[in-house]
């Protein structure tokens, strides 16, 4: 077996990490986990404060999920979904239509959040060409500044985080852009009470002017996570849904990050009683165990893809691991855990404990904003609180805070100078205390 020094060296030299500057990468090698705690190869323990990149829901090594994987392995690990099926995938498709916002009756499986969005974009494009009254001019999309939808070329095209994607601009298709309807840095003359109406007026103007060529609007409901947990004004999602109906434009809801209980409801769209035309799911779908994604669609969209073989109306898109039986089996077990452990019912007490700490931390002179919903929260560090002037990106204040929190046994990953909390839903009250005290310590260290 390789020794620790070999693993650290191989990690630096051979494992090319995503969104990581390898020139200054400091290896952190996880060997095992239990509950909300990760252990590295030297035996150090870390509270998983980001849910292993926002996907772990019920903790690591959950007996119910472990058992589901082992049981499925005794049957079949993988089989194609092209012209064939398997029991777990069929059952999961049915279960998802039962818990999703009403009207989403059909499920296309893929293997990541980016591919779930890619599927939605292509479904919308093909739908407008195959519906009974085709609208082939509808080939453009509307998305938001600072939106993030993944790293395939289609999902990057609708993404709006310039730091991530500016390099690839020549490869991307046209996207019409709306300003992120955030609630912290409001435009001059706009206050919190007016924000929803202000942003919806901008959306209506764009849809009124361009609806004839717009296939869909793509939105992260309620919270733009990778942008720094930007929260939308209450009522914005509902208002946007009404506008897309009025102007005959599809609505794609990207709930890859905010779905499966993160905001306090199973799906973020439920907070405003919205059913999108297409719903993208991934990350928490399997409780953080295996890559699996799903794009849910209405029956109206589904019907546009039906017809005789020679008409070639089927959806020409697929992934090798579509509807993978192992992923589907563990996803079903995750949904069972939601019911058996009353996961959503237990969240209010955890949210209140989190908010108790946030109210205190919000008083720090370098905390500009505390925001989020449910167990998705963020603390933005600023140089000047009165003007919301940010620290220079090169100062890496968020990185310094997270590094200090790691010394207190908490693993976090910042978004610039914004500290993000995205723990498993199974986190205990004592673990919330540990998380927040480590973050508070990290802020103090970063401001020295």
CATH class of the largest domain: Alpha Beta
Mean of pLDDT: 97
CATH architecture of the largest domain: 3-Layer(aba) Sandwich
SS class: alpha/beta
What strand line-up does the widest sheet have? 4-12-11-10-7-5-6
Q: How many discrete structural domains?
A: 2
Give the overall silhouette. Answer: globular
CATH topology assignment of the largest domain: Aspartate Aminotransferase, domain 2
Helix content class: 25-40%
Relevant CATH superfamily of the largest domain? Type I PLP-dependent aspartate aminotransferase-like (Major domain)
Q: Are there runs of 5+ residues with pLDDT below 50, and where? A: none
Number of helices: 14
Q: What does the main sheet amount to?
A: 7 strands, mixed
Which radius of gyration do the C-alpha atoms yield? 22 Å
- The tally of strands reads 17
- In terms of DSSP E residues, the strand content is 15-25%
Measure the end-to-end span.
42 Å
Brief summary of the model shown:
The chain is of the alpha/beta class. It has helices at residues 4-14, 51-54, 63-73, 87-99, 113-130, 153-158, 162-165, 192-210, 236-246, 299-303, 325-340, 347-361, 397-407, 429-446, and strands at 30-34, 37-40, 45-48, 104-110, 140-144, 175-178, 214-219, 223-224, 230-231, 250-254, 278-281, 293-298, 367-373, 376-384, 389-390, 410-411, 418-421.
């Amino acid at each position: 077996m390789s020794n620790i020094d070999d693993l650290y060296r191989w990690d630096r030299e051979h494992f090319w990490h995503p969104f990581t500057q390898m020139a200054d990468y400091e290896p952190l090698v996880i060997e095992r986990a239990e509950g909300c705690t990760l252990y590295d190869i030297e035996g150090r323990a870390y509270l998983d404060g980001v849910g292993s990149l926002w996907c772990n829901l019920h903790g690591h090594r959950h007996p119910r999920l472990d058992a589901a994987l082992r049981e499925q392995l005794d049957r079949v690990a993988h089989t194609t979904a092209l012209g064939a099926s398997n029991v777990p995938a069929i059952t999961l498709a049915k279960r998802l239509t039962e818990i999703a916002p009403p009207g989403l009756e059909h499920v296309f499986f893929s293997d990541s959040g980016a591919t779930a969005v890619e599927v939605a974009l292509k479904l919308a494009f093909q739908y407008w060409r195959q519906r009974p009254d085709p609208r082939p001019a509808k080939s453009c999309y509307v998305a938001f500044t600072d939106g993030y939808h993944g790293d395939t070329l289609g999902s990057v095209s609708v993404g709006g985080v310039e730091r991530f994607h500016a390099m690839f601009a020549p490869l991307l298709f046209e996207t019409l852009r709306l300003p992120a309807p955030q609630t912290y840095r409001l435009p001059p003359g706009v206050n919190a009470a007016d924000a929803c109406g202000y942003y919806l007026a901008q959306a209506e103007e764009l849809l009124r002017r361009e609806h004839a060529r717009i296939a869909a609007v793509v939105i992260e409901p309620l919270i733009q996570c990778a942008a720094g947990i930007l929260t939308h004004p209450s009522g914005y999602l509902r208002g946007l849904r009404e506008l897309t109906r009025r102007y005959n434009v599809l609505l794609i809801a990207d709930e890859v990050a905010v779905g499966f209980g993160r905001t306090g409801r199973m799906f973020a769209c439920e907070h405003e009683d919205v059913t999108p035309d297409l719903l993208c799911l991934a990350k928490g779908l399997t409780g953080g165990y295996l890559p699996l994604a799903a794009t849910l669609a209405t029956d109206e969209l589904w019907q546009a893809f039906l017809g005789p073989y020679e008409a070639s109306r089927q959806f020409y898109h697929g992934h090798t691991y579509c509807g993978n039986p192992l992923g589907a089996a563990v996803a079903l077990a995750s949904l069972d855990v939601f019911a058996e452990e009353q996961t959503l019912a237990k969240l209010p007490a955890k949210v209140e404990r989190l908010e108790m700490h946030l109210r205190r931390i919000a008083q720090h002179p370098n905390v500009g904003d505390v925001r989020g919903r449910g167990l998705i929260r963020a603390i933005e560090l600023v140089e000047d609180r009165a003007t919301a002037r940010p620290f220079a990106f090169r100062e890496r204040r968020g990185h310094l805070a997270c590094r200090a929190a790691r010394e207190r046994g908490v693993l976090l990953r910042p978004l610039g100078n914004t500290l993000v909390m995205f723990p498993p839903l199974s986190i205990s009250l004592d673990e919330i205390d540990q998380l927040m005290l480590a973050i508070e310590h990290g802020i103090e260290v970063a401001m020295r």
